[in-house]
């Protein structure tokens, strides 16, 4: 059961209440649980994802140790700015779209 961390930014208060009920809030918007199993992690992510699809505000990142993933890090993200996580060699890279504004 790996450590799980969730980071939120500019989201509604309901996220704080929900995450605070299942994880420790280390700092505003930063939540951690030292030994969360995959089933609980998936259920938490499903709630966050459902709310985000309705509310469409802020950003949420969930990460956990995953020995089967590139770089040993499982990662899910929702929100702005949009980003794409790409495996490269033994690590993960984040690519953000190039804006038309220069």
Short description:
The protein is an alpha+beta fold.
Structural features, described:
- With 102 residues, the protein is an alpha+beta fold.
- It is built from 2 helices and 7 strands; from the N terminus they run βαββαββββ.
- Strands 2-3-1-4-5 form a 5-stranded antiparallel beta sheet, covered by helices on one side. It has a two-stranded antiparallel ribbon with strand order 6-7.
Helix content: 25-40%
Q: Describe the main β-sheet briefly.
A: 5 strands, antiparallel
Measured between the Cα atoms of the first and last residue, the distance is: 45 Å
| Overall 3D shape | globular
Q: Report Rg.
A: 14 Å
Mean pLDDT: 88
How are strands sequenced across the largest beta sheet? 2-3-1-4-5
What class, by secondary structure content?
alpha+beta
Kindly list the characteristics that best describe this protein.
7 strands; 2 helices; 102 residues; globular; two-stranded antiparallel ribbon; alpha+beta; single chain
């Amino acid at each position: 059961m790996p450590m799980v961390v969730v980071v939120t930014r500019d989201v509604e208060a309901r996220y704080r209440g929900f995450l605070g009920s299942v994880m420790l809030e280390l700092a505003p918007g930063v939540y951690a649980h030292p030994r969360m199993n995959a089933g609980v992690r998936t259920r938490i992510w499903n709630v966050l994802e459902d709310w985000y699809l309705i509310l469409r505000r802020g950003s949420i990142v969930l990460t956990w140790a995953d020995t089967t993933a590139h770089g040993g890090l499982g990662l899910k993200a929702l929100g702005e700015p949009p980003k794409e996580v790409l495996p490269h060699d033994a690590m993960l890279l984040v690519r953000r779209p190039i804006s038309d504004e220069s």
